[in-house]
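1st attempt posting a full record on here, be nice pls
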Amino acid sequence: MRIGIIGAGPSGLAQLRAFESAQRAGVNIPEIVCFEKQSNWGGMWNYTWRTGLDEFGEPVHGSMYRYLWSNGPKECLEFSDYTFDEHFGRPISSYPPREVLFDYIQGRIEKSNARDYIRFNTAARWVSFDEDTQQFTVVLDDRANDRTYTEVFDYLVVASGHFSVPNMPHFKGIETFTGTVKHAHDFRGAEPYEGRDLLLIGSSYSAEDIGVQCHKHGTKSVTMSYRSAPMGFDWPEGMEEKPLVTPFEGDKAFFSDGTSKRFDDVILCTGYQHNFPFLPSEYRLDNNNCLYPDRLYKGVVFNEQPRLIYLGMQDQYFTFNMFDAQAWFARDVMMGTIELPEKAERDKDIAKWLAKQDAIATPDDDVDFQTEYIRELVDRTDYPDFDLEKVAELFKEWLRDKEEDILRYRDKNFTSVITGTKAEPHHTKWLDELDDSMERYLATADELAAKKKKAS
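the predicted structure (as tokens):
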């Protein structure tokens, strides 16, 4: 049996790790090949300065930017089989910056031989399925060597993510706006917006985080325009929310409440498309960002073609540990340890979860829904168990912290549900910390004081 994996971000790496876990337990695993179109693993955590097109003339995959700090406690995403204590050897704070989290992701996978399974700079171009052989043929481009070839697989795992193809709505008059316009996908840092009036269109995590970062780094004003409902945080002076933009005229944006304001720059924080151009239309997911995509049994197995697996396609409270739970479940399905029920039963199960999703009323309900979903996966595999319900309580505490102070919630610290280690406060308050390098983050207060004294 051969298994193909498209993508070596956190979900694809989780799938490799799941098979490696079985192999260490003495199980003979199938032949596995993973294709990653970037030059390194990590998916969105693989930062690049590039925007627009990459070195091969193709759309840049990554949306990661400088000065991004985790917007949720690390204790909520900790791997059950590889803790932050194991990786760093000491307690660190609950909200690490981008480089530190990427190092943690790498630390787990570097303990394995996963790199041997991955072909980098390789993009999937087209997938077809042969009903007679029950196999997929994948057309691939080795971009570095300008070579096109095909591979055949018995199962195909799509782990390409859904935060890389921007959703770009049109707003009347925006084509004549005299300032700069870009999507959050191309945002790489707040420096260009220092001293400027910035409009963010959107009311979700991207608008929240980019807005707060720009405020922190000296943007003159940040206005966030919402379509259906405001985020409603207690914004500091210089930050505000407005209802949806109606038209643009020159350097002005007019809002549906009758007000207007001039801006220097616009960033569209309008979300991303589920985009799978390498798949035939009948195999593509076609839904908005949600907690339970339709047509996926247990959120993983494509119901009309059970040899097709999707990982990480949900809206996310849980992240790394949810990808693990899905990957372990998918591994057992592909290896026959978990036997799938007939399609009619799978249909009923999907309908049950969709009905639960429709009943969600609050963010706490979101957390409880995803906790219950992951619990069902973990209980069916040998993935190392952890206190999911305790993690859910941490998420709810995090939600309350943000409501209390959107600028300072990252100064709070939590206790690991896996090791019991209490996070160590960062040496500098987040609002005052303008250096997100791993070197500075991991330095102790004494080391920084000695360095400052030596410099003076």
